Task: structure prediction
Amino acid sequence: MNKPLVKIEKVGQTFNTRSGKFTALRDINLDIRSREVVSLIGHSGCGKSTLLNLIAGLTLPSSGLLLCDNREIAGPAPERAVVFQNHSLLPWMTCFENVMLGVEQVFGRKEGKPKLKARVEAALAMVHMEHALHKFPHEISGGMKQRVGIARAFAMEPKILLMDEPFGALDALTRAALQDELNGVMAKTGATVVMVTHDVDEAVLLSDRIVMMTNGPAATIGEIVEVALERPRDRLALAHDTRFADYRAAVFEFLYRKQLKKAA
Amino acid sequence: MSAIALKLVNAPATAEPAAVTAAVPPAPTPAAAIAERPVAIERSEQAVTPPAREGLGEGGRDLLRRIIPPVFGIILLIGIWALVAIKSGNIPGPDKTWAAALKLFADPFYRNGPNDQGIGWNVLSSLQRVGIGFGFAALIGIPMGFVLGRFTFMNRMFEPIISLLRPVSPLAWLPIGLLVFQKADPAATWTIFICSIWPMILNTAEGVRRVPQDYLNVARVLGLPEAKVITRILFPAVLPYTLTGIRLSIGTAWLVIVAAEMLTGGVGIGFWVWDEWNNLKVEHIVIAIFVIGIVGLTLETMLLLLAKRFTYESR
Result:
């Protein structure tokens, strides 16, 4: 693993609510290295999505500093692509057009139409959606929509990919298929990924590090587990691997022994 | 058979949201889960239709079930009308009106001077007035709706004005129009403008306010410039709301034009009704009522079809 791509230094986030100030996050310090897959896990309301939004630049921190590639994160940008929880495809555009919207924005000035088209097609082929290029989002299933959402993010060739519970709205079988798919894509592209999840298996299967957060309010990073399983990872082989079970147990231990009592 | 198919498709859809809400509190998830449902149900409907087509009898029976009630309704209306006509004596019955209508529609586009023109011309000039007044209202109302929806300050600034003026009958504006334009025709158009602008402003503004935050976040992450945000995201997202506003506007405009023309005179279906009343041709008034109704219905249906074209199931 090499130099940190994203540096999060003493970040805190306070929201002004009707009942006064609400501290969502405090003292977050985290370095995300290039080509690393990090997942954020914790009970609901622990501010994992808040932290992801901060890295995305969708919200700005109340205190502390976030750097991406040594520059301060002052707003959202295509270099930090986001895969939204509920796919967020624009319903009046086909899959192709949805992906093209981002591709055009990032590469439109430098490249001609045919090259942009090739990029979009390649991205959709990578998630095995080449058959649905010209379908509208309401014509495809939930899992397919999320594939297109992932393709849209990857097609922009971001420095880092941020995923907010990308498979949360899917059924277990579709989720497993998409996790494998994502594992493959990550291996192919060597992407840096930060993923919010509430699924322990998903975290162990996909990540290099699992960042476990304490309960909110005023949540912070509790523990970090390094997952030293070699890649490519095979779901079936890992099911019988004692190391997989150990990592799983470590996360469960944190979530259900150390953090459960405080959970509302 | 069809019931089983429906159940099979529905079962995972209903099980899903429960599993999701248990694990994730943020609002977007249930919305996404709900959004998926119509698709599943729609597919099952598509799957159900073909077997119904196998036996032509069932499809035909379905068609009859749709057609028979309206036919009964119309027969009832004509029956009551005929009864009232017989009892009262001065209201023309369906037979008399039908004969008059045949004569009238034999030559709808004749011109004998400014005050005696065919019913076709009268309808067309009313439609023209509505079109012009309504066009100006759209030109001003829709952009204004965008501004009010996007900027809270502007919304708060204009809200009291709109609330104050909206309940006023458009006909109350007619004298102002006569005063300003010094002519009957633009005054009637002005009345149409006033009555059509409110629903367009309010619906467009509401549409802008309801654009899902997710779409705007997508725009921010992709780094879309403001112009593209408007054309590629805001405009298509707001279009269904604006179309609803347009439909409401057209409906009101068509209601108002008849009254306005009665007051201003000239050529137009409203004026024609008044003129025929002065000529005591009551059967023509009855015909006018049907014509006004049919034109209004046609406008409404056309806009409904247009709105359907631009509504996306997954919203």
